[in-house]
Specification:
- The chain is built from 7 helices and 16 strands.
- It has about 260 residues and is of the alpha/beta class.
- The protein folds into 3 domains: about 90 residues, Translation factors (Elongation Factor Tu (Ef-tu), domain 3); about 120 residues, Nucleotide-binding domain of ferredoxin-NADP reductase (FNR) module (Rossmann fold, 3-Layer(aba) Sandwich); about 40 residues, Dihydroorotate dehydrogenase B (pyrk subunit), domain 3 (Ribbon), CATH 2.10.240.
- It has a 7-stranded antiparallel sheet with strand order 4-3-7-1-2-6-5.
- Helix 5 packs parallel to helix 6.
- The protein binds flavin-adenine dinucleotide and FE2/S2 (inorganic) cluster.
- The site of flavin-adenine dinucleotide (FAD) has 21 residues, from strand 4, strand 6 and helix 2.
Length: about 260
Amino acid sequence: MYTQGLYEIIKKKRTAEDTFDITLSCKDLSELAKPGQFVHISVPGFFLRRPISICDIDRDNGTIRIVFQVKGKGTKSLSQFETGERLDLLGPLGNGFKLLDCDKKVIAVGGGIGTPPMLAIAKQYGENATAISGFRTKDLVILQDDFKAQGNKTILCTDDGTAGEKGFVTDALSRCIEKEKPDIIYACGPIVMLKAVSEIAKTNGILCQISLEERMACGVGACLGCAVKMRVNGNEFYGHVCKNGPVFYSEEVVL
Ligand SMILES: Cc1cc2nc3c(=O)[nH]c(=O)nc-3n(C[C@H](O)[C@H](O)[C@H](O)COP(=O)(O)OP(=O)(O)OC[C@H]3O[C@@H](n4cnc5c(N)ncnc54)[C@H](O)[C@@H]3O)c2cc1C
Ligand code: FES
């Protein structure tokens, strides 16, 4: 079930290079939203909506939060909306992450701008979640204080070592698993990272869900703008990121 409407921006800040953090007042949408789902945002002058993951859900205050990076003209235009203005949102869309009991141990791995949806899912598990986040360099680092504030353990990695530890999230993930095997791994980020995380999960026999932020058009399963090859019980077929995903069990997608 989803809704569509104009929702007011009640907070906006620039949190890293070309990265914006926006809180929207949207009571109906916040009540429906689950971690891992996304909103499809209409940008004036553009035919296609832009998909952005839900980064945080606050049902008490009737808000959701999105964090996005300027990539092209659509997100540039989105970044120019200010507090008090309203955005046309369709959502929540997609299936969201599988939630285990909150006393289970989880690892949430975010790569770059794939980090925002990890905040919402890690929130469900508090101190039982370890958030491993990776960025190219310190100017791109986001959400580390937010993970800590909700009780999560954090490991920050940068490719160039300018913040946190130097190295890839996959090195940190392997190290964490050696210490304690989690019940599930959640991940969102570049395909190359998702492939490596899926491989680590498979080798260690750990349940793993990945969120694919592939190109998207209609967002509701009506076109083929987001086809992804899937393999379920040995049968290969094409699914839709927007309808079957964006969250998939890692063994069910062919990356
Ligand atoms: C489920 C999902 C969740 C996402 N969550 C986030 C998020 O939380 N934060 C964030 O910064 N980005 C996120 N993205 C990526 C974001 O949607 C794109 O960066 C954005 O659509 C680019 O639009 P643009 O007009 O700036 O770029 P342009 O390249 O000018 O876009 C042209 C067209 O391509 C589509 N497009 C381009 N790149 C992507 C892409 N990577 N994914 C989907 N469509 C694309 C646009 O919708 C548009 O139709 C998400 C993508 C998906 C599919
Ligand atoms: S974006 Fe149209 S089917 Fe997925």
